[in-house]
């Protein structure tokens, strides 16, 4: 986040699974904690998810295997998600008497209440094709091609877009949903005005008018 030369973060894993969610043995151990201790532990997960969601960098999830429970939450948090067809998705917490509490907050924003209700309450496990249909992920790529496709997509963002603009768009997406219509529009007007004064906007408009290719750093 502090590296000005970085525009895109790729979140990926090694092994058969992208992320299978919380360690159940660890959750069992936490059952002996006090309510305050469990709230503190849950807040750590919240801080992680919030850090990814609000990152000024574009986050791409490269999902090479199953993404379940909290792992499905990670997939949903990314700005863009690429998955292999074989990957399984699902919020399975209700099947073990638990709740997908923190991931739910972000999922409702991403795919809406109707779709979220269906998968959160059923605990259904589904494939990448359905995950794409739900709007949970963006792309389905073959296992041998996903690495290259993610790289090419990331390079397109890096070379084609202003990092400053993408960061501002991400901030605005996060904030406007919590505001009334009037306040959201007022915030949008101010953001619009500030963007016009930015170095990147001046550079981009000048290059367009001069019919030059924009060379983003």
What descriptors fit this protein?
4-stranded parallel β-sheet, alpha/beta, globular, about 220 residues, about 55% helix
How are the secondary structure elements laid out?
Layout (H helix, E strand, L loop, with lengths): L7 E5 L4 E3 L4 H7 L4 H19 L4 E6 L2 E3 L1 H8 L2 E4 L4 E3 L10 H11 L1 H10 L3 E2 H7 L4 E2 L5 H15 L2 H14 L4 H16 L2 H11 L8
Parallel strand pairs: 1-3, 2-4, 3-5, 4-6, 5-8
Antiparallel strand pairs: 6-7
Give an overview of the whole structure.
- With 217 residues, this protein is an alpha/beta fold.
- The protein has helices spanning 24-30, 35-53, 70-77, 101-111, 113-122, 128-134, 146-160, 163-176, 181-196, 199-209, and strands at residues 8-12, 17-19, 58-63, 66-68, 80-83, 88-90, 126-127, 139-140.
- The strands form two sheets. Strands 1-3-5-8 form a four-stranded parallel beta sheet, with helices on both faces.
- The longest helix has 19 residues, at 35-53.
- The mean pLDDT is 92.
- Based on Cα principal axes, name the global outline: globular
- The N- to C-terminal Cα distance equals 16 Å
The percentage helix is 40-55%
Biggest sheet: strands, sense, closure? Answer: 4 strands, parallel
- The neighbouring-strand order within the major sheet is 1-3-5-8
Q: Identify low-pLDDT runs.
A: none
Quick check: average pLDDT? 92
Radius of gyration over all CA atoms, rounded: 19 Å
What is the number of strand segments? 8
Number of helices: 10
What fraction strand? 5-15%
Instruction: Identify the quaternary structure here.
Output: single chain
Structural class: alpha/beta
Q: Give the H and E element order.
A: EEHHEEHEEHHEHEHHHH
């Amino acid at each position: 986040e502090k590296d000005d030369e970085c525009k895109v973060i790729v979140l990926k894993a090694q092994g058969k699974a992208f992320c299978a969610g919380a360690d159940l043995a660890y959750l069992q151990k936490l059952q002996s904690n006090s309510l305050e201790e469990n709230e503190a532990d849950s807040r750590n997960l919240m801080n992680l998810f919030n850090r990814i969601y609000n990152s000024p960098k574009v986050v791409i999830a490269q999902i090479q295997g199953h993404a379940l429970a909290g792992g499905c939450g990670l997939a949903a948090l990314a700005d863009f998600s690429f998955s292999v067809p074989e990957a399984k998705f699902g919020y399975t917490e209700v099947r073990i008497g638990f709740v997908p509490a923190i991931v739910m907050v972000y999922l409702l924003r991403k795919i809406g209440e109707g779709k979220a209700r269906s998968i959160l309450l059923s605990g259904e496990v589904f494939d990448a094709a359905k995950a794409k249909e739900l709007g949970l992920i963006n792309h389905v790529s073959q296992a041998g091609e996903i690495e290259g496709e993610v790289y090419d997509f990331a390079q397109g963002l890096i070379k084609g877009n202003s990092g400053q603009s993408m960061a501002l768009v991400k901030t605005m997406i996060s904030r406007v949903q919590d505001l009334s219509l009037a306040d959201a529009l007022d915030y949008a007007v101010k953001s619009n005005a500030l963007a016009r004064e930015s170095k990147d906007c001046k550079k981009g408009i000048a290059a367009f008018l001069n019919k030059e290719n924009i060379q983003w750093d």
